[in-house]
Amino acid sequence: MAAKIRVGALVSGRGSNLQSIIDHCQAGKIDAEVVIVISNVEDAFALERAKAAGIATAAFPRKAFATREARDDAIIEALQAHRVDLVVLAGYLGILSPRLIETYPWRIMNIHPSLLPAFAGAHGLGVHEAALCKGVKVSGCTVQFVTAEVDAGPIIVQRCVRVEEDDTPETLSARVLEQEHQAYPEAIQLFAEGRLRIEDDGARVRVLGK
Ligand code: GRF
């Protein structure tokens, strides 16, 4: 086992990915510990999940700050106060300020419910609607590092699902979500083991062998 990394999560919604990460940590399946959960939505259910797991929480709603930069500075302060090694966006609806991204270079991950770069920029059920409109035969999820361009960072882990002829956005979303709940812990563990090497000026991630 590697030394445990300290994870800070940014969330906005129901927090099923957060729950999966917490469960993997608590079961000792990954060498990580979620030390702070921060939301830009005061009543996000994800915050309840964190509290139930005994994890520190903070809410920084947009309306409490004059600018996005000011809000993100408060987020940086909270992450630093908790000595976070890795930031995970787990259903976080918001664009990060350049300063936040620069404070954690190659140490911020996001999960997206498609096989990026397909359907970048879409979110929620809209991703699955777009995939079904195109008649894709496989879909899936992607964990990537966050860079300045939304949904364009280098890819860390992807998992596929078959698309069935009778899939609706809801049924496809549910099957992709099951894979998300495996993909995110897997990516965090690769990070914890120091196995992610950024190559080609940040264009791609090489996963090193054990
Ligand atoms: C997930 O589908 C994730 O890929 C996307 O937002 C959704 C969050 O779901 N970024 P949850 O809050 O983790 O349940």
What does this entry look like structurally?
The structure is a single chain. The protein has helices at 16-26, 45-52, 68-81, 98-103, 125-134, 169-192; strands at 5-11, 32-39, 56-59, 86-89, 108-112, 138-145, 155-162, 196-199, 204-207. The protein has 210 residues and is α/β, with parallel strands linked by helices. The protein has two domains: 1-104, 3-Layer(aba) Sandwich (Rossmann fold); 110-210, 3-Layer(aba) Sandwich (Rossmann fold), CATH 3.40.50. Strand 8 (196-199) and strand 9 (204-207) form a beta hairpin. Helix 5 packs across helix 6 (169-192). It is globular, with a radius of gyration of 17 Å. Bound molecules: 5-O-phosphono-beta-D-ribofuranosylamine. 5-O-phosphono-beta-D-ribofuranosylamine binds at residues 13-18, 90-91, 111-113, 177, 180.
Features:
210 residues, alpha/beta, Rossmann fold, 7-stranded mixed beta sheet, two-stranded antiparallel sheet, 25% strand, globular, binds 5-O-phosphono-beta-D-ribofuranosylamine
Query: Which molecules are bound in this entry?
Result: 5-O-phosphono-beta-D-ribofuranosylamine
Overall mean pLDDT = 97
Order of the strands making up the biggest sheet: 3-2-1-4-5-6-7
CATH topology of the largest domain: Rossmann fold
Contiguous low-pLDDT stretches (5 residues minimum) are none
Looking at CATH, the homologous superfamily of the largest domain is Formyl transferase, N-terminal domain
Number of helices: 6
- Terminal CA distance reads 12 Å
